[in-house]
Design brief:
heterodimer; B: 212 residues; mainly alpha; two-stranded antiparallel sheet; 2 strands; globular
């Protein structure tokens, strides 16, 4: 599971 | 950060600037779909809510703020300042048919069932189809001004470069996000037909005109 803070792209 | 990602972000930024400058200089938003611009504003708003709770880098924060501001600025120019030039009769795509499925899909297929995560997923799904009203407008009028074509080309390039960025990240960082990748490929495919017309017509100095 990925947390929101892992969304490092724009 | 790799070169594909940086070039992708710069293409995206350039697309947005081209659009704003075109509207400002010509004092007209003819040929531009306000529906697509509304969808992009919804996309950025739902995705960049993480400005509040997640810090990635100054670059990331600044770009997010610029995208949000430019997107709302475009909507202001289209729906307020230059409203009289807005091609409302041709811009008839029903955006609820894109928003509703993107919302339902985000609730079903996501990385985690949390409010911000679902909004992020929704923004990814919606972005993949947000250009459809614009492409529909071009197909309805049968033509696009060169500057509108350049805008669409930069926007499509941004998505294509992001695919190279994901391939690079998969090998170099072992990082991948299937939701973003699948939606990004769908989004890029939507531009393929346009890319073909752009390369065969616009780059040779002709107007982008669809066969009657």
């Amino acid at each position: 599971m990925k947390k929101n803070s892992n969304h490092d792209e724009l | 950060m790799n070169i594909f990602r940086l070039l992708g972000d710069l293409s995206h930024l350039l697309a947005i600037i081209i659009l704003l400058v075109k509207i400002w200089k010509t004092r007209s938003c003819a040929g531009i779909s306000g529906k697509s611009q509304i969808l992009f504003a919804v996309v950025y708003t739902s995705r960049y809510l993480d400005l509040i709770n997640a810090f990635i880098s100054p670059y990331n924060t600044i770009m997010k703020i610029v995208f949000l501001a430019a997107s709302y600025g475009t909507i202001y120019l289209m729906y307020m300042k230059f409203k009289a030039t807005y091609d409302v009769n041709h811009d008839t795509f029903r955006i609820e048919f894109l928003i509703a499925p993107a919302a339902v899909l985000a609730l079903i297929v996501n990385h985690a069932f949390e409010p911000l995560e679902i909004l992020w997923t929704f923004s990814i799904y919606l972005e993949s189809v947000a250009i459809l009203p614009q492409l529909f407008l071009v197909s309805k009028t049968g033509e696009a001004e060169s500057i509108t074509s350049h805008y669409l080309f930069m926007l499509g390039s941004y998505r294509a470069l992001y695919i190279f960025n994901w391939i690079y990240r998969y090998y170099a960082e072992n990082h991948y996000d299937l939701i973003a990748i699948v939606a990004g490929i769908v989004q890029t495919v939507l531009y393929c037909d346009f890319f073909y017309l752009y390369i065969t017509k616009v780059l040779k100095g002709k107007k982008l005109q669809l066969p009657a």
